[in-house]
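pasting for ref
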Amino acid sequence: MPNNSRRKFLQNLGATAAAIGAGSLTAMAASNEIKHTLKGEKKVSSNDKIRIAGIGMGIMGFGDVKCALRVPGVELVGVADLYTGHLDKAKATWGNQLITTRDYRELLERKDIDAVIVATPDHWHDTISIDAMKKGKAVYCEKPMVQKISEGHQVIATQKQTKAVFQVGSQRVSSVALAEAKKLYQSGAIGQLNFVEAKIDRHSALGAWQYSIPTDANPKTIDYNTFLKDTAKTPFDPVRFFRWRNYQAYGTGVPGDLFVHLISGLHFMIDSNGPERIYATGNLVQWKDGRDIPDVMVAIFDYPATDTHPAFQMNLRVNFADGGGGGEYTRLIGTEGVIELGWNDFKVKQHKLPEAPGYGGWDTFGTFTEEQQKAFIEDYNKKYSAAAAPLKAATNSYNAPAGYDDRYDHFVNFFEAIRSGKPVVEDASFGLRAAGPALAVNESYFKKKIIQWDPKKIDIIG
């Protein structure tokens, strides 16, 4: 368990300030807050060219490919997608020389492709990732790693068997902010962790996955039968194709899309293997558009004590009908402070309990006689010295520089693993330790029961 001493934290804080540089620190005397600017993106210099392909060119696919191509030495060979319009858009973006296909297997057969980015709907993640690794390709697979827990174990087995480079796309674990937050947590910044709470609330149609549907969506421009894979055969439906996140058959709902980000970040920070009990509840409140998943969901996770962290509880919430306008945060609450995470920024707020309990106010002291109050104060002053006075509350805030992109650093880590054999930051086992509990949330919600989870075997018990 980390040494949660305030003294050690203050020593490490001084070292952090020295490493960042005095020019990057701004003392905010009025609010007692010190602001720190973290270092920017990783610098890359390599003569080794890596040729990639994108499989699944929707929102994440285009975003991932564009980000990957910012890394020096990376070149795009081809893309695969089931909608002709996405293939046309890819050529318009990167040139007519681009190889485009509806069949991802054509790309896997090419010898001039070293790595693939898998950004398809969730129910295709395992199949494509496994096929790609068996063909000798490195794989960057979007989160959640799989749609079903059993699929995750197959991906882990394939990675071990093929020795392929495989990284899950929860880019937060490569963020400079999360790396610094991890250091401060492990130095004892907040004392003993006892509770984690996080929320991602939204109040918009796009935020609730009602994505735009092109006017040319039809059975000729979309290979709908391939999209369905092994799910129930339904008549052509562009809504299911473009808004697949809203359906259990193809996506993983709120837990797989959003909770998994929060779980990944937490596990990275505190070196956790996962919870032991999971319970979820929720409702479909606003977006009654044919979806069969809730738009409001709360999940409770009980984490056991381990060598790296104490026992604690985590509550996660998503509300797609938030009339307050939405917002998000993650808070790690300890006995001496709290770490409040944004995305590429966070704050450490310290508020240590003094040894002296105090008296007066909402207290029995006011009910004592005047004589007894004087006696109490005299005894109190003898028992508690000035050294036991409460420490002044302090806040340190940490921000990545303007324009920082953690997804870029995540791709740098991926390509470094390909070039040098360096371990990735989020391999298949890490990916399932994050995705598994998220998928168990769905299990709890739909079966209306508590899920017992084995964090070592990464599976549901019973």
